[in-house]
Amino acid sequence: MKVESTELRKAGLKVTHPRMRILEILDSQDGKHFTAEDIYRELLDRHDDIGLATVYRVLTQFEAAGMVLKHNFEGGQAVYELDRGKHHDHMVDIESGKVIEFSSEEIERLQHEIAEKHGYVIEDHSLVLYVRPAKRK
Amino acid sequence: MKVESTELRKAGLKVTHPRMRILEILDSQDGKHFTAEDIYRELLDRHDDIGLATVYRVLTQFEAAGMVLKHNFEGGQAVYELDRGKHHDHMVDIESGKVIEFSSEEIERLQHEIAEKHGYVIEDHSLVLYVRPAKRK
DNA sequence: GTTCATGCAAACCCTTTGCAGCCAT
DNA sequence: ATGGCTGCAAAGGGTTTGCATGAAC
């Protein structure tokens, strides 16, 4: 039995064709971030007849199940990535649109320190650097 | 002459009633973050007959002129605040919706270090901590 | 056979835009 | 006077939802 179907069952979701396909696409490229449209078009390319509404519904369910992370970078369109367990933040190259992942334990630590100082506990956080290739000197 | 009108002229914008009023509202509470609707409703309360479209247009112009900062926190609605020159990041209390400002030179420094390490220069960044009041122990 | 999921189109929310009239300069 | 501004209503883009059909269990 495929890994995907186990994942779905674990999340309490029926193993349906759309969910399997979408999960496969999300899993196909590590570190890649997809918009709902990206996935929809990929499905069309594969001649899978799955509606855009279903893509949104499935992504929302995956997010609720903790299988997928959703990010709202600038630009209106949300992007999704498979949650592979290692936390990271993002850098967006504003010239190419490319998304680079990074992580910094030190920043994480400082964030918790700051929240604590204000009497809070961090539930979630979002750190995005909008960057541009450095000019060679 | 009021400070507001000087600000507007400096930005190359005509000194109109809507722009003055919106600027006044933004200036009325330091550290406060407004949605376009917040401002619109505030204007209605003051019996200023200004359309929501105008509020959006004016806020966009203010942002372009560097007078105002726009943030896209979770929840679909953008919030605006007067740019008073001191950079800061945000913490959002997910229970009350309250926005707390903070700043950390150390985090800023680490961000630049990370971007540089990847061959990039930071153009902009967004750091938001979604927090919950700490339980008393 | 039930229950849950899907496709389609319509609805939704926030934001932007076209246009004719109005106001600041 | 004239060019930029405004209000209104309509359009826009991304996302969600209602409903009848269809698939998974």
UniProtKB/TrEMBL annotation, chains A, B:
Coiled-coil regions listed in the entry: none
Location of the protein in the cell: Cytoplasm
Residues in the signal sequence: none
Database matches in Pfam families: FUR
Annotated keywords: Cytoplasm, DNA-binding, Iron, Metal-binding, Repressor, Transcription, Transcription regulation, Zinc
Family that this chain belongs to: Belongs to the Fur family.
NCBIfam families with a match to the protein in the record: PRK09462.1 (NF006999)
Binding partners and assembly: Homodimer.
UniProt-recorded name of the protein: Ferric uptake regulation protein
Protein species of origin: Dokdonella ginsengisoli
Lineage of producing organism: Bacteria, Pseudomonadati, Pseudomonadota, Gammaproteobacteria, Lysobacterales
